[in-house]
Amino acid sequence: MEAENQNGFMSSLKKITQSESFAGVLLLCCAVLAMIVANSPLAEGYAALWKSKVGFDVNGTFIGMSLEHWINDVLMAFFFLVVGLEIKREVLFGELAGFKRAALPVIAALGGMIGPGIIYFVLNAGSASEHGFGIPMATDIAFALGVLSALGKRVSISVKVFLVSLAVADDLGAIIVIALFYSSGISFGWLAVAAGIVAVLVMLNKMGVKALTPYMILGVGLWLAVHNCGIHATIAAVVLAFTIPVAPKMDTLDFMDKIKLVISNFQEAQKKKDGILLQNEQIEALHHIAQHKNAVQNPLLRLEHALAPYSNYLIMPIFAFANAGVSIGSNIDFGVDHVFLGIFCGLVIGKPLGIFLFTFLAEKFGIATRPKGVTWVEIFGAGALGGIGFTMSMFVTNLAFSGEHALVATDVAKISILIASLTAGILGCIFFFIRDKVTHH
Question: HSE on the CB side for 403, CA within 13 Å?
Answer without folding.
Answer: 9
